[in-house]
Amino acid sequence: MFDWILDFLFPPACPICGRYIEQRDCWCRECVKKLVRPHRLPLDDEMNRLFDGGVWALGVYEAGLRDMLRRLKYEGRKGLLGGLHSFVGAGLAGVPSLSVARGVKAFGDDSPVAVPVPLHPDRLKERGFNQSELIFREPFAELRISMEPVLMRTRPTVPQFGLTAAERRENVQGVFKVATGADLSGRAVIIADDIMTTGATLLECARAVRGAGAAGIMGIVAASGRK
Ligand SMILES: [Zn+2]
Fold it and tell me: At 73, which CATH number?
């Protein structure tokens, strides 16, 4: 169908507030402005040592952003990715060590590689996609940072949701490993996830990545409940 007919019948609307927008699959300017809030998260000592590049959240896990992430993850609404990509792109521009470098050097001495937090193969099969990979691959590519899904889960875990901080740590302890043949030695690695709550998952990923010889580690999440 011609785009103009489609636009006439179904005017493009911001998926968050419903306001009319010029380009389909994006968010309106007001929503982007309201929801893009890149901020460096406070970390405990162990996280601080591992994440020498810090952990950054691009927005706060509430209202509109929470809905978009949930609808993608649990309803498989991939049509929301366009808006999420523009959100992530705007957020990454607000992370100093990335925006200064613009894809040449982010931190460390090498061009960085982005690694999504993996799902267990059973979960991946059930969902059909890894949301963290879908959310970040394109915006990182814009910065000429390639995404390599080299982390793997060695066993299934129960969802972190509803567990205490101590239970979360135990649930994911030692669960991640770097795929055989992947070479992270001496490289700057950006671990990317959709949401950070206590940081237990990111911590375990960072341990695996450091164990594989990464020279520097940074964490980027689309949203965190921590402001
Ligand atoms: Zn809006």
Answer: 3.40.50
pLDDT higher than threshold 90 for residue 100: no
Q: Tell me the residues surrounding ligand 1 (ion) with CB < 5 Å.
A: 14, 16-17, 19, 28, 31
pLDDT tens digits for 161-200? 889 989 999 999 999 999 999 989 988 999 999 999 899 9
Residue 133 covered by a domain? yes
Range of the domain at 210: 24-224
Q: How far apart are the first and last CA of the chain?
A: 44
Instruction: Give burial (CB, 10 Å; 0-12/13-18/19+) of 104.
Output: exposed
How many A from CA of 29 to the centre of ligand 1?
7
Determine the Cα–Cα distance for residues 38 and 22; give it in Å rounded to an integer.
25
DSSP 3-state of 7: helix
Residue 2 lies in a domain: no
pTM comes to 0.90
The DSSP letter of residue 195 is E
How many domains does the chain contain in total?
1
Q: How does pLDDT run across 128-143, given as a tens digit for each residue?
A: 999 999 999 999 999 8
Distance 30 CA to ligand 1 centre (A): 6
Question: 39-53, 158-172, 211-225: which has the minimum mean pLDDT?
Answer: 158-172
Within a domain: 17 = no
> Is residue 147 assigned to a domain?
yes
